[in-house]
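Structure tokens please, single chain.
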Amino acid sequence: MTELLGGELYVSCSVVLPAACHLRRAMETTEDDPAYLVRFKNAITTDLDNRLQSCNISWLKMSSALDPRFKQLKCLPKSEREDIWAMLQHAVSRAELEAVGQSTSTSVHLQMMSR
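Here you go.
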């Protein structure tokens, strides 16, 4: 299990949402569940939700999208999947513009220094 999650002492951020989604599905209650099991499942789900609230969810979504194992984003509603890919495209475009800008400013700086 630890190999899937990333390692013994850490968890890859790309795994957090898929694992939470799987855990949430596993903790769904059924009519056949005894009362103690319903309370247990509800407690686990509530605790998981509280922990995820303190996470950078958009970062976790983008990380999962970039991981080949989870790039289909099945852990997210279909309505959110395109937004994640758009956010990634925007981030790449912004990084490319910054790289071009840094390259240009470095060239200008070097030209000024050579004079």
